[in-house]
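Reader question, answered in our methods column.
A reader sent in the components of a multi-part assembly and asked whether the whole thing could be modeled at once rather than chain by chain. We filled in our standard form and ran it. Here is what they sent:
COMPLEX SIZE: two components
ENTRIES:
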Amino acid sequence: MPPAKVQMTARQVSARVSIIDIQGEVTAFAENALMDAYAQASSPTTRVFILNFSGLEYMNSSGIGLLVTLLIRINRQKLRLFAFGLSDHYRNIFEITRLSDAIRIFGSEAEALDAAHMP
Amino acid sequence: MSSSVSPEEGNVASAEEGKPRDADYWARNVSSLKLGRVPSGAINLNVQGKRPVGPLQGFGAMWQKTYRVRLSGVKVQPTAVIKVWKEHFPEFWPKGNRFYGPLTGIAPGEVGLINMALPGGVPLSTGVMILYADDESFTFMTPQGHVFAGWITFSAYEDDERSIAQVQVLIRANDPLYEIGFRMGAAKSEDRFWENTLKSLATYFGVEAPEVETQAICVDRKIQWSQAKNVWHNAGVRTTMYLMMAPVRVPLRWMRRRNRPEAK
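And here is the structure of the entire assembly that came back:
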């Protein structure tokens, strides 16, 4: 498998909330990076995961499939998945793929964090 | 340690300022599908006005199935495989199933019509929207009423100096009737459909006795009961009812024309 052209890093901003920062390309080759970041972002107290797409350079349809499988894993544990940093183009993709029906999208990290910390 | 990019920087653009590299590969957002000209003889149902649905909008368990064929003994680049696949797409489908592609070819946002027979001989008219297309892959998204809700990605890549052609589906059965059908054997029919499609493609390129490898993963066993209402759009039921009404439809149309006030 070719090396993934993506870097994903996890940061826990609070006991309840973790952010995964995405830099690069989200394609099928990004699967290991995404699952590793998700594992790093997880803790017994994490309730909300937020994906930061500000550094997204490219995404194909296999990349969208990865996001679905991540969402399923998170939902299975009755946790939530948010997103921010999407350009108009990537918001369009979230809408046409109907991913936006299940992942809440925010305009900024601050807005996403506010929503994540609401009971 | 974080390597985040400041949100204000936004998504990185391509050489054309402000335009992402993948901008031309994705369909535009649409609320419902619009079908272009349909060849005579095709049954045109269950596409026009239907909304595209992804795997999150389906009813049944979610499956990711991957079908792969290695193009052994032939030298062909993955981009050439995809070019041929797009140009000759309907020809690789198993007999008895018709894909009426858009006149402009397989391109993002275009809509294709499908006429096929489900297991048990149930006729089906439905379609797909081309969600994504680049030089190495293209993806269909299904509409309301299709057998499944989800995405089908056709791709080719190089492995060990040989091209591999792949079909990968990420799907849920769209409604309870289809989910029952899947569990009673339709899932195996689906597997055979794509295995035969890949064998046809490989044979086109001169591969002798192509073998398809199939992998199935249940991504989510959970049934989405809130989507049971999708059965309203069931294309199998609607196509069957349409065909059953055919003996009545033609005389009715004639009577309506006959009773129309004469134009001056």
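What stands out: The first strand of chain B starts at residue 52 and ends at 53. DSSP finds four helices and nine strands in chain B.
Send us your own complexes using the same form.
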